[in-house]
Amino acid sequence: MPPSERDILIALHHLPGLGPQKWLTLQHTIQSPADLLDWPTDKLIKSLGQNAAQLFALWRAGEQGWLGARLNALARWLESDGHHIVTQFDELYPPLLKEINGPLLLYVAGDPLVLNLPQIAVVGARKATAAGAKTAHHFSQALASGGYGITSGLALGIDTQAHLGALAGAGKTVAVLGCGLDKIYPARNLALAAQIIEQGGALVSEFALGVKPEPGHFPRRNRIISGLSVATLVIEAAMKSGSLTTARQALEQNREVFVIPGSIYSEVSEGCHWLIREGATLVYKPEQIAEQLGAQLALFDLPEPAIEVNDELVPKHKKLLQLIGRERVEFEALLALSHFNLSELHQALGELEMLGLIASSEQGIERLFAGS
Amino acid sequence: MPPSERDILIALHHLPGLGPQKWLTLQHTIQSPADLLDWPTDKLIKSLGQNAAQLFALWRAGEQGWLGARLNALARWLESDGHHIVTQFDELYPPLLKEINGPLLLYVAGDPLVLNLPQIAVVGARKATAAGAKTAHHFSQALASGGYGITSGLALGIDTQAHLGALAGAGKTVAVLGCGLDKIYPARNLALAAQIIEQGGALVSEFALGVKPEPGHFPRRNRIISGLSVATLVIEAAMKSGSLTTARQALEQNREVFVIPGSIYSEVSEGCHWLIREGATLVYKPEQIAEQLGAQLALFDLPEPAIEVNDELVPKHKKLLQLIGRERVEFEALLALSHFNLSELHQALGELEMLGLIASSEQGIERLFAGS
């Protein structure tokens, strides 16, 4: 049986030097990755380079070789629970990441659905101040319990507090790594990584298994962090720091950037202040982010949070959840929109509330996305 | 000899209840304040109110009365060196203050010319943090030595540091009071007030002699602080503080507002952060203010700093200073603009540099406004 398009893509991804840019160029010359199975070797060499072309030619000829061995190792890894590959051919590939021409594929450990949850990247200095660490935890907890995924880089300092805050908020969190998922870095955060998966989040990387963390990987890691997220929150960032790069990428990607200010005498606030002067939004309360993004998400018609609707729900419930959407809705509006009668609506809302899927207050009815 | 228009304005200013608003209304009904000398008493009562009208009627009849006694006391005060009144009829009345419908007149102790210097208001909390005090001093010193007047309110905390910083920068500073100039408040700053005058600055108030500081006066005082200034710099300000009011007034007056950020856990930074979210400009270096205002001043065609050109200057020097203006100019441009020949220009620039009026560098030639 010939390899599928997806298999070919995965094989291509393992070839040295085939990043998203080269892939884009390649895409213009082929209808499908399967075309490459028929290309003469000299054409392959012209497109992929000598080294990559030879590895690919060997593999398509059915020989084990270097590429075959790596793909076999990958196949074994994929046999474990919660190990996934999400390619640009897969529906699960996050649209926000596609928008910025993200990597051909992502390695995922944990629940890949979480990548489609509206996420906020929380980034900052490894050498965070105590106040910065507290802020990262507090904001991430509040935003996660409000239904946002928290995306960060599993580094020490702000990243760690962001993940911990999200977990404390009973929310989901995504850690993007600058290495293969079998080489988790830093080792001090191995337990945190496990807990992230445990609680329904995910570890993500564009780097193949076995790839070690290297300084050159972190800009690419940062690009995924901001690319996955509707917004980036920068807590503490020195000038010329990785966090600042992430934030600049977010601005270039036309994503919202929120920034926590600090003392003008603190080095780890200088990058933050620079960003605010460049147009990023100063925030000092988590609500300010939620408020602004509420409007934003509606504006850009972004996908609903990818939290699965309970299968036990009857169509009536599903219809109501759809109507409520991401915005708080008044009871009267819901009555008109749903075409339910008064007692039908009361009963259905009561059931949804019992299931922890909505909350009602005098201000109206809203969906609860976190931990639901 | 009948009283002059100016005398009548000063008399009117002393009448209870005649603020800028009432004066504006009155102006629509008269050609000149002298008209009021001929108005029948019932017409005066209708415009000024019973009490004020009777005081005014007595005074215009040449009787001493309450108003006459106060004007005599004022006349005695004006006999002292450096005591002035600047009315809306005087050329010295600051145009920026006129623009926002400032008070009918200002009492000035010190050099009234300083009110026409481009000024930056520096305001903030009385209960400043050590970092805030340091920032106020540092920024005021840098801006004052760059030729800007520093305007503040002589209060403890940020205000005091702003005045002290300006003095340390060998610059001029203006203290606007919420009381009569013979009732300087707080008493702890009496020596500072004297030094402000000593160094060519001024104390200013819209309140008549003998008026004590009262809480209700400070919003009016703050309005003058921002109204005199091309920009307001807020260092530390709690929500609902007077400094925040000053900054909001500055924004309403379409003046630039610069803000120093701080910790999100500090109460005296909350107002600052609020202002930044409202559109004020975050700054963390004095140069950022100077840069932005340089462009601003050129744009609005505001008066050049009112530092007098040395009388010993020959016309050639004056012409060059005019050409250099507020912006750094390249030597070649100056050569073309001045129509001087090469050696003439070199000599004149050398003389101006010796006089401390300009500085040349590889980037060009610029005027030095401070202490020149």
TrEMBL record, chains A, B:
<dbReference type="Pfam" id="PF17782">
    <property type="entry name" value="WHD_DprA"/>
</dbReference>
<protein>
    <submittedName>
        <fullName>DNA-processing protein DprA</fullName>
    </submittedName>
</protein>
<comment type="similarity">
    <text>Belongs to the DprA/Smf family.</text>
</comment>
<feature type="domain" description="Smf/DprA SLOG">
    <location>
        <begin position="85"/>
        <end position="293"/>
    </location>
</feature>
<dbReference type="InterPro" id="IPR057666">
    <property type="entry name" value="DrpA_SLOG"/>
</dbReference>
<dbReference type="Pfam" id="PF02481">
    <property type="entry name" value="DNA_processg_A"/>
</dbReference>
<dbReference type="InterPro" id="IPR003488">
    <property type="entry name" value="DprA"/>
</dbReference>
<feature type="domain" description="DprA winged helix">
    <location>
        <begin position="311"/>
        <end position="361"/>
    </location>
</feature>
<dbReference type="InterPro" id="IPR036388">
    <property type="entry name" value="WH-like_DNA-bd_sf"/>
</dbReference>
<dbReference type="InterPro" id="IPR041614">
    <property type="entry name" value="DprA_WH"/>
</dbReference>
